[in-house]
Each structure stands twice: as C-alpha cells, then as structure tokens.
Amino acid sequence: MDGDFSHHPRYISDFFMAIKHCDVVIGSRMIFGGRERGRSVACRIITKTANLYIPIIFHTKIKDCTSGFRCFRREVVRVPFKQMISQWPSSVGKVFYYCLQQGFLIKEIPILFEDRRREKSKLNLRIF
Description:
By secondary structure, the chain is an alpha/beta fold. The protein has one domain (9-114). Helix content is 29%, strand content 15%. It is built from 3 helices and 5 strands. It has helices at 12-18, 41-58, 90-101, and strands at 24-28, 35-37, 70-72, 106-110, 112-114. The chain has a 3-stranded mixed sheet with strand order 3-1-4, with helices on one face. The chain has a two-stranded parallel ribbon with strand order 2-5. It is globular. The two termini are 20 Å apart.
C-alpha cells in the first residue's frame, strides 16, 4: 500500500474480510464500485493501457493488475525474492505473475484511489 494515503487505510478491514476466502486481495479501481480521483489524464491512460494488455498476456480476468494496494496470505509471501529484484512498477507485475503461476486465488475489492496531494508520482511514460 502506498504511504501517501492514495491507498487509504479505511479499506484495511475490507481486505481482512476478503482474505478469508482467497490468497491475495487487490484493491481495485477498475471493478464496479472502484474509482480514482485526482489523477492526470496521462496517468489514467498509462494505467488503463497496462490493464488492457496485462490480462491478455497473463490470461487472467483481474481488472486492476497494476494496483499496489494488496493483501497476501502468509503462504503467498514465500516469494522467491531473489528473483523479484527490480524497480517499480515491474516489481508489482513480477509478484502478480508469481501469484498467477502458483495458482493462488486472487480477489479484487473496490477502492477509491486518490492521487497524492504532495510530491509527484514517479510513474511517467518513460518508466511505462
């Protein structure tokens, strides 16, 4: 979860309820009830584009593959971290891919993603 309140702690109890029935919970902007506020057009385009092609590549129905707001069961966290060395956003994708490969059950819950009010996002077209 981002520490700048773009991923608000008010959803943590929802994560704890959902994790009882799956292995990984993703806070999703892309499912019914999920949304985002305050993001630039460029950031929205980057996110939507990534969430169009990642499900095709990974053969998944997950709508918000790029969300970093996630909850994992202890069993899932046995990730081979030496293979996960990378910089964001690819680290988010690598963990997601690992979970899919291992057959973990992934559930999305709706969240409101609010863009940070201070500082600037590191995500840009070059990183994308």
